[in-house]
Design brief:
Blueprint (H helix, E strand, L loop, with lengths): L14 H13 L6 H13 L5 E4 L2 H11 L7 E4 L6 H8 L3 E4 L11 H4 L7 E5 L10 H11 L2 E5 L7 E2 L2 E2 L6 E5 L12 E4 L6 H8 L3 E3 L5 E3 L10 H11 L2 H18 L21 E4 L6 H10 L15 H4 L9 H9 E4 L7 H18 L5
Parallel strand pairs: 2-3, 2-4, 4-5, 5-8
Antiparallel strand pairs: 1-9, 6-7, 8-9, 10-11, 12-13
Helix pairs in contact: 1-8, 2-8, 3-4, 3-7, 9-13, 10-13
The structure holds pyridoxal-5'-phosphate (PLP).
The site of pyridoxal-5'-phosphate has 14 residues, from helix 3 and helix 4.
């Protein structure tokens, strides 16, 4: 019997949510409306009552956060080179300059021991990223930010459902940005949410989301700021509302599956495992590093032959052509580069069975034993 293909991730959408989406489609109102407001309320409740506004992507969310934080030309923003490229692209998008700080090889998140040395008078903000759902140490991060008067825009795209000090990520902090892309722990197909700090005008946030338009009770309107076209649809918000009911169960199941990987991966294979965190991480991804010198392309192809999907998240982004053109070079951030070359993402999603994890662990033995001869 050949087993069906196991992708590295797959969303879980229940039938009730599908029926609710059908209702919206039949309702005559399919763009932003009551479902968006309901979703924002549900997210705000989850985030300790802080105001939350939803967007059509996590990228738009980050860009608006930077604008609300007053970041623009002449400013620098500190972030990690080991993230989805959106994190750095938005800095360029608002006319500011990204400054990268290498990652800690253990957590694979921005190295807080190196962060302070990167702060200059031009630094306006920090964008920490919780890679794979493992939170950056919020206590140390905010201590540094407060000491230097910097804004923080948490790129928690991968950390919805994760926590810090027993509280959900999003329930404290400065700006907190989430993504609801199809692969994230909670999805709206595409979408994002921004948790706003108390000093930020929610009305301005809404205007930056939709063409800068301000409407008056008499039917008139004005535009006093350049806004984008970043609103979420009621169709997407309905998916999000349906997903919220499962968030705790999704996170719990991901943690169980991650534990099973730790127990099941043969230590003799020489894979570098992630931090075994079962209180904070939401296990957005289970990422291991291949032994140095192994051909990752061949490894991925061999796993695919065994019916197993492998992801790569991510090559160090400062080595992309766009960033090389800004002056970044090989060797600038050795840990991010090394992890970027060797990282692979194993299948992990709530609907996976225990036996799927076992199948991956067995396949790893077969493929890595065969590949050992290719190590240079
Ligand atoms: C997914 C993701 C984003 C962007 O979110 P989109 O909804 O795809 O725009 C930004 N940063 C990180 C770390 C992400 O994983």
């Amino acid at each position: 019997m050949t087993a069906t293909f196991l992708p590295f991730t797959r969303p879980s959408i229940d039938e009730e949510t599908i029926a609710e989406v059908a209702k919206v489609l039949r309702s005559g109102w399919i763009t932003s409306g009551p479902k968006v407001l309901a979703f924002e309320t549900a997210l705000s409740d989850y985030c300790g009552g802080h105001p939350v506004r939803v967007f059509n992507s996590g990228t738009a969310t980050l860009e608006v956060a930077l604008r609300l934080a007053g970041v623009g030309a002449g400013d620098t923003v500190i972030t990690t080179p080991l993230t989805w490229v959106a994190t750095a692209n938005v800095i360029l998008e608002v006319g500011a300059t990204p400054v990268f700080v290498d990652v800690d090889p253990v957590t694979r998140n921005i190295d807080l021991d190196k962060l302070e040395a990167a702060v200059t008078p031009q630094t306006k903000a920090i964008i920490p990223v919780d890679l794979a759902g493992l939170p950056v140490d919020r206590d140390r991060l905010y201590a540094i930010a407060h000491k230097h008067g910097l804004r923080v825009i948490e790129d928690a795209a991968q950390a919805f459902g994760a926590s810090w000090n027993g509280q959900p990520i999003g329930s404290s902090g400065d700006f907190v940005s989430f993504s609801f892309h199809a692969n994230k722990n909670l999805t709206t197909s595409e979408g994002g949410a921004l948790v706003l700090p108390a000093d930020i005008d929610t009305g301005l946030c809404e205007r930056l989301r939709l063409q800068g338009v301000r409407r008056f009770p008499d039917g008139g309107m004005d535009v006093d700021v350049l806004g984008g076209k970043f609103n979420l649809t009621d169709i997407a918000a309905t998916i999000g509302l349906g997903q919220m009911k499962h968030l705790a169960a999704f996170t719990a199941r991901r943690r169980e599956l991650a534990r099973r990987y730790f127990a099941g991966i043969d230590p003799a294979l020489g894979l570098e495992l992630p931090v075994a965190d079962f209180s904070n991480s939401n296990w957005h991804m289970f990422q291991v590093l291949l032994p140095a010198g192994m051909d990752r392309g061949k490894f991925i192809a061999a796993m695919k032959e065994k019916g197993i999907g492998i992801g790569v998240h991510y090559p160090a982004l400062h080595l992309f052509s766009l960033y090389r053109a800004l002056g970044f070079r090989e060797g600038d951030f050795p840990h991010a580069e090394d992890i970027g070359h060797r990282t692979i993402t194993l299948p992990l999603f709530p609907a996976m069975r225990d036996s799927d994890v076992d199948r991956v662990c067995i396949a790893l033995v077969g493929v890595l034993a065969a590949k050992a001869s290719h190590v240079t």
